[in-house]
Every structure is written in C-alpha cells, then in structure tokens.
C-alpha cells in the first residue's frame, strides 16, 4: 500500500492545480499495475474531495496520530505531519518555494524522509532553500495522462482558438492576459479567446470571476473537472496561454496541451522551459506585448503536424513517471 497524505488546509479538489492531477494520476497508474494506493486526508471527513475523484480510494483519518498505523509506504504531499511511520516516508514537494519564515518548518518536514521534487529547477531551488545537497533530492517528473495523447483533434477553424485554463489568480498571469486583450491586434486578428474559470474554491478566484462576468472580449467556461473534459478542451484549441508571473515548479498543463496537439505560449520562468515537447513558445513574463508576440509566432508555426504531436506524446509519459517514483521509494 502507498498512502499519499494530503496536506492540511483545502481538500483535494479537481481542476485546481498540478498537485491534484499528479497525485491522482499516480494513484490510477499504481492501481492499474495492481499496487494498492490511496489518498489520505485529515480534518475534512468525507468532504475531502473524493466526490471529484470517484475512481480512486480516499481514507479520512480522525487525527494525525493514525498516520503511524498506516501499512506500507507513506508519501506526504507538500507538507508533512510530525509523526513516525512504519517505514521510511517520502515527501513530494510540488509547491513553489515558501517564504523564508517557513524555512524551519519545512526543514522539519524532511527529517529522515526521502525528498522528491518535480523538476530540475524545483529541485535546485529546494536544495538552496533547505540548505541541503542537491543530491539528496530525487526528481520524479510529471506526466500527461494518456487520454491527452489519444484525444482526436477537432478540425481547424477560421479563427485561432486560444485558451487560458489555469487558475484565476494574479500569479498565473490573468492580468497580463486582460491587458493584452485590449490591444487592437488582439481584437482584430481573428482570435477566439476562452477563459476557464478555475480556482473558484478560494476568494481570489471568485473575485476575479465576478470581474469577468460581463467581459466582452472572451468566452468564459466553467472549470474542467475531469481528465477527459480538459483533454477535449485542449484538442479543440489551437494555443494554450500560460503567462505565469511567478516561477512555476513545473507546469503539467503545458505538457498535457502539447500531447493534445495544442501549441503552448508560456512564460520563460521556473520549470516551464522544462516542459518543452516541441510545441512550446517561451516569452518574457509580465509583458502583454511579449505574450501577444508569442501568440503570433505560434500562429505562424501553424497547426501541429502528426509527426510533431507523435513526438510530443513520447515525452513525459505516465508510466515513466510511476516507474521512477517506485524506483525512488524502493531505493531509499
């Protein structure tokens, strides 16, 4: 049994971030291989997000002391409880580097535990933050669910279909997009823009969604809660925008889009450059002009060919990610 311990705070909600997608995908693949795996939550009871992930098992514990009783291997997600475990535990650090005042707490999280990061960039940053050798950190790269690669693309349309599918949050570059949308080039070049209203489980997301309710320059779409829904959206899009203004630890959505044959225009920061499957265009962050230029470049490159998509689908595969996870857990 491998138990992924969800961190304190918000429940595990679908369509809200890479940690959720990464964890659920690993559990599905482990169970497909006949290896028992589950999400373990504390403090939410059965309202812990299981309604969004009906195909994977959840266990709700009454207190953190019960973690010590779990059989098999314990893998903490982002944060760890200060409890002993039957076997050496691991911690997967999906999140971006916390503030300096939290450093001592994170140093306690890693004591006696295997440390896993999700990109070379992220691993290097955690090593510096935690003041440990980079060699102590294992890299288990994210993946695109096979559904993205198998989804049939829709036929091209006269208008270029551009989508933003990240959380409605300033750090994801939503305000860069809105400033860009008011340029004449954006409004008169035959672009059709869709903004996915993900991230409404927090106040910031709800506030931005209210601001956009009557926005005339883009279509609003509800958050895509399942792998198939997101894969279908990307297979019906030409360009995905990821204009993050902070250093993403990786950026799973980028590789998911490329597996679906959708070009990606993303900020040249953090782990995003590592997501290149051949359909990625990198641009300067916080610059509406750079984002628009990147979109024009992606349009000029044209629709991804079958050869380009086939190449993309061979990168960041789910089975390879789980192989590496199991190797790390077994070797430590």
UniProtKB/TrEMBL annotation:
Short name of one Pfam family: Glyco_trans_1_4
Molecular functions per Gene Ontology: glycosyltransferase activity
Protein name: Uncharacterized protein
């Amino acid at each position: 049994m491998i138990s992924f311990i969800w961190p304190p705070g918000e429940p595990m909600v679908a369509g809200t971030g890479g940690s959720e997608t990464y964890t659920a995908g690993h559990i599905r693949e482990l169970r497909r291989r006949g290896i028992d795996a589950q999400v373990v939550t504390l403090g939410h009871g059965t309202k812990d997000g299981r309604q969004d992930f009906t195909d994977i098992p959840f266990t709700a514990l009454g207190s953190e002391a019960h973690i010590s009783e779990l059989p098999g291997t314990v893998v903490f997600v982002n944060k760890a409880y200060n409890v002993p475990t039957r076997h050496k535990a691991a911690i997967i650090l999906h999140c971006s580097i916390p503030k300096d005042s939290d450093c001592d707490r994170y140093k306690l999280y890693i004591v006696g535990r295997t440390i896993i990061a999700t990109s070379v960039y992220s691993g290097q940053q955690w090593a510096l933050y935690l003041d440990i050798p980079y060699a102590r950190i294992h890299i288990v790269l994210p993946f695109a669910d096979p559904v993205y690669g198998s989804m049939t693309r829709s036929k091209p349309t006269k208008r270029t279909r551009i989508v933003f599918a990240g959380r409605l949050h300033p750090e994801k570059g939503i305000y860069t997009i809105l400033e860009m949308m008011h340029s004449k080039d954006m409004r008169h070049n035959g672009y059709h823009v869709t903004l996915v209203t993900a991230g409404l489980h927090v106040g910031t997301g709800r506030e931005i969604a209210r601001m956009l309710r009557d926005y005339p320059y883009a279509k609003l779409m509800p958050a895509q809660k399942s792998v198939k829904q997101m894969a279908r959206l990307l297979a019906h899009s030409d360009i995905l925008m990821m204009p993050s203004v902070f250093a993403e630890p990786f950026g799973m959505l980028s590789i998911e889009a490329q597996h679906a044959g959708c070009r990606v225009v993303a900020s040249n920061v953090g782990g995003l450059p590592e997501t290149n499957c051949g359909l990625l265009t990198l641009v300067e962050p916080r610059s509406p002009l750079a984002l628009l230029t990147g979109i024009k470049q992606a349009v000029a490159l044209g629709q991804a060919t079958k050869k380009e998509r086939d190449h993309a689908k061979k990168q960041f595969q789910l089975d390879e990610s789980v192989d590496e996870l199991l190797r790390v857990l077994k070797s430590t």
